[in-house]
């Protein structure tokens, strides 16, 4: 009988999940719970993570960057991340930049080597 895949999440090299990752996971779970409470169902892949609370159907928020920055502050995510989001408009919480859109970075922040296209994981 084939072995079932493990449900354990990968941890950092030291065996612990970084605090920012825990806070981000909590933020996402909070948004998921709010979505279920509002719309009475699990969110689909096409549904927005941050949605208009007054809308009758899942609708992306009008100013997502500001809402995300406020949510990051509520989740006690270090201010360096909020600064990076404000400067780049990108959300890069991991060390892997292989899937990053180098064309979206400001000219002074381009990586030293070209970024390869992402492969399916």
Word description of this protein:
- This protein is an all-alpha fold and 121 residues long.
- It has one domain (19-109).
- It has 3 helices and no strands.
- The radius of gyration is 17 Å and the shape is flat.
- Residues 109-121 have low confidence and may be disordered.
Features:
mainly alpha; 121 residues; disordered C terminus; 35% helix; flat
Secondary-structure blueprint:
Layout: H1 19-39, H2 64-74, H3 79-88
Question: How far apart are the first and last residues' alpha carbons, in Å?
Answer: 25 Å
Element pattern in H and E = HHH
* Overall tally of domains: 1
Q: Tell me the β content.
A: under 5%
Q: Would you count the extended β strands for me?
A: 0
Which value, in Å, is the CA radius of gyration? 17 Å
| Major sheet attributes | none
Mean pLDDT, nearest integer?
74
Percent helix? 25-40%
Structural class: mainly alpha
Tally of separate helices: 3
State the shape: flat
Q: Segments where pLDDT lies below 50 for 5+ residues? A: 109-121
């Amino acid at each position: 009988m084939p072995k079932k895949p493990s449900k354990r999440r990968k941890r950092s090299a030291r065996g612990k999940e970084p605090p920012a990752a825990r806070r981000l996971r909590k933020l996402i779970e909070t948004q998921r719970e709010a979505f279920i409470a509002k719309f009475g169902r699990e969110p689909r892949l096409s549904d927005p993570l941050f949605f208009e609370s007054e809308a009758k159907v899942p609708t992306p928020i009008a100013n997502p960057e500001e809402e995300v920055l406020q949510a990051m502050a509520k989740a006690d995510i270090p201010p360096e991340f909020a600064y990076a989001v404000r400067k780049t408009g990108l959300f890069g919480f991991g060390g892997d930049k292989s899937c990053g859109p180098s064309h979206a970075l400001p000219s002074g922040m381009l990586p030293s080597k070209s970024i390869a296209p992402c492969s399916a994981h």
